[in-house]
């Protein structure tokens, strides 16, 4: 994912959520609806999410130091994990609590026109934000399904924004359902049910994002297609007889570490081996530009080296 694409989606979501949060709180004050209050908290949490993602992207761009020789690229994973675990979970916990409270002590929804107007406005605004996230994701998704893209993407921002915007749209639909049923039936319990539905939705999204970002934070290797390109580039170098073994690790979304032991001819000179390694590194970087840290260890091709007498 390009940094500019991710930033564009984040800013679009942040702008929409700030406007929507204000509108939802105003509607909650006029209507007394717990669904609207939960949705207001949801939008505030979403806005916090986007601020954290922007901070993570800024901090990840710092130059490497002696203490962090491989740089700070994985800070983007850390902040995405914080978004998943803390903010989504807080939003879910508040919504579940507020929904239970409303079901236990139902009250009539006053001035429902405020709720309907704000919810329709919010659905339109979130729709534009979701459209931006889809457009930016399609630019890098390739032929992957949406589920595969969320699970395999090494850049956390777009999957987070996609699930966040999807959750926001579904949450608005749940809130609209709860308020509508409360108005139609005159029973405020429905408002609480809509709020509980929002809480369950946020909890599910929190679990999914936490699992995916945890995997990135712990450390993931290159995707199969990227690894295949690196292998092909390495094996195409004239001095490389074969790859004995190879490991890859993402130091950040756009930075990959490649470590490999390669077999060379037993009668190659040190100068020839050094030139071969330089050429192999050049070919790897040409095939996969994100392979920025490369360590190649030469070894004798023991499968072809003549046995000692």
Instruction: Briefly note the structural class of the backbone.
Output: mainly alpha
Mean pLDDT: 84
Which runs of at least 5 residues are low in confidence (pLDDT < 50)?
Answer: none
The CATH class of the largest domain, by name, is Mainly Alpha
Terminus-to-terminus distance? 56 Å
Q: What best-fitting shape do the alpha-carbon axes yield?
A: elongated
Number of strand segments: 3
The CATH topology name of the largest domain reads Alpha-lytic protease prodomain-like
* N to C succession of SSEs: HHHHHHHHEEHE
CATH architecture identity of the largest domain: Up-down Bundle
Report what the structure shows.
With 309 residues, the protein is mainly α. The protein folds into two domains: 3-218, Alpha-lytic protease prodomain-like; 224-300, Cation efflux protein, cytoplasmic domain (Alpha-Beta Plaits, 2-Layer Sandwich). Helices cover 69% and strands 10% of the residues. It has nine helices and three strands, in the order H-H-H-H-H-H-H-H-E-E-H-E. The protein has helices spanning 3-31, 34-60, 75-104, 112-141, 146-152, 157-185, 189-218, 224-235, 270-287, and strands at 242-252, 255-264, 291-300. A three-stranded mixed sheet has the order 1-2-3. Helix 9 (270-287) links the parallel strand 2 and strand 3. Helix 2 runs antiparallel to helix 3 (75-104) and helix 2 (34-60) runs parallel beside helix 7 (189-218). The longest helix has 30 residues, at 75-104. The mean pLDDT is 84.
